[in-house]
Please model this.
Amino acid sequence: MLFIIVEVWDICPCKLIVMTLLTLDGPAFAAAVVMGVLFLLFGGQLGIFFMLAMLYFLLLSAIVTQIGHGYKKRAGLYEKKRGVRNVLANGTWPLLMVFLYLLFGNAHPHIGQMALVGFFGGLAAVTSDKFSSEIGVLDGFPRSIIGFKKVDKGVSGGITWLGLGAGLVGSFLVAGLVVFLHPYFYAGVYYIIGVVTIGGFAGTLFDSFLGWFEERGIGNKFSSNFFGSVCGSIVSIIIMLL
Model:
């Protein structure tokens, strides 16, 4: 755990900017720019916020990717570059929620609120999954989410206590963005933060569940990321409506 803390403190603002840019390969960077413009356009008066929220996710992803990178490289678990499919898998569902907000946010405020919570829940889910996978590999041998048998590190569907805890933290870090939009929610802002945190964490659990099927030739990590985001969004909305 100590080397994780040391590496986090070693990250300076300049390094963060460079790391964020280097996380994506060329085509992925272009796709991210296009998607950022879509968030800006579809988001209306909140377009800037949505775009910055996605950049925040990218920044968090860059940070957790670097944590323990020496160990990950030695173990063959270090994935520095992300491609177009990563961008689409992580950003498509939040973008759909923003588009839903654009269509109904003003005419139907309740649907607008669900779209906002769906956006946060979906983004929290992919962030939670990123934290869980990148930090979880630093723990001992993971266990399969189905059957709880020991599996090798890096195997889809494997979970560790450290990874689960990190996933909860990642979900909370995104949920905290809700405070910037508190006037848009009828419910208390702290309640919405709790809702999104739980929803995002549920999304990463579902992602791991789908990972079990990946190992059996059904789906891939990109489809798991996408549907994990969908799950985080839906769970967040359902809890809000209860």
Observations:
- The longest helix spans residues 109-136.
- The chain has one domain: 2-241.
- Residues 2-241 form one domain.
